[in-house]
Amino acid sequence: MSQNEQRRAPLANGMPMLGLGTWQNEDADQCAESVRTALETGYRHVDTAQAYGNEEAVGRGIAEADVDREDVFLATKVWIDSLGSEAVRRTTEESLERLGVDAVDLLYVHWPAGDYDAAETLPAFRELVDDGLVERVGVSNFEPRHLDEARDVLGADPFANQVEMHPLLPQAELREYAEGRDLELVAYSPLARGDVFDVPEIRDVAEKHGVSEAQVSLAWVREKGVTAIPKATGEAHIADNFASLDVDLDDEDVAKIDGVERRDRQVDPDFAPWN
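Below the sequence we write its predicted structure tokens.
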């Protein structure tokens, strides 16, 4: 067993706090290979979505990896045009078929937009949990007001809220909201789609530890108690991101990154709830 295979990400209520993101990983063979490589490197959390168009490739990568399915935390998301109650069930069943699994560990509402109606959408998600097709209900790109509404409908907090988060978009309000609640935060685009490599403060911390800027950024996200799901396709990047688990930032490092003044949101569609 390799050193990577022995290492494991810490868990947040059973969810590994480092996962493989697959957004824009649209080449089927490349996607399947990146998932297989990540799992055999030591990742145990894979994130996809109906809108990514790669669920079948993700499922193939999981099946081809020398890792048991029950050891993999698998998440997908329902797109905004399928959030009516009947469409939620139909498209989720289609997702499971494409993924080649009986159930997913986490199913997200991708955005509070389109056909989303909390009173109709969320009970349909809860029924999927009751029927054993989904282990946990999640939401994505939700603001505090949407989280309050979801809690009222579900009678409990969703398991997780997946949002863009990185040193250039630290999401202080959402992190404060999650504190003391049964709500995990999951950070997509945790490397700001590569922009973290151009931040002097992050570069300085990376040089201090002799690691990459990506590893520093992922370690910073973890220091905030947030799960990161960076996208990576090549073996080198997959391994580099995974090595962030060995990076321990001290208080001075965290404060330096917290002091970055630059702000930059990478994902900002017209239907985003903050617009």
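The CA atoms of residues 51 and 79 lie 6 Å apart.
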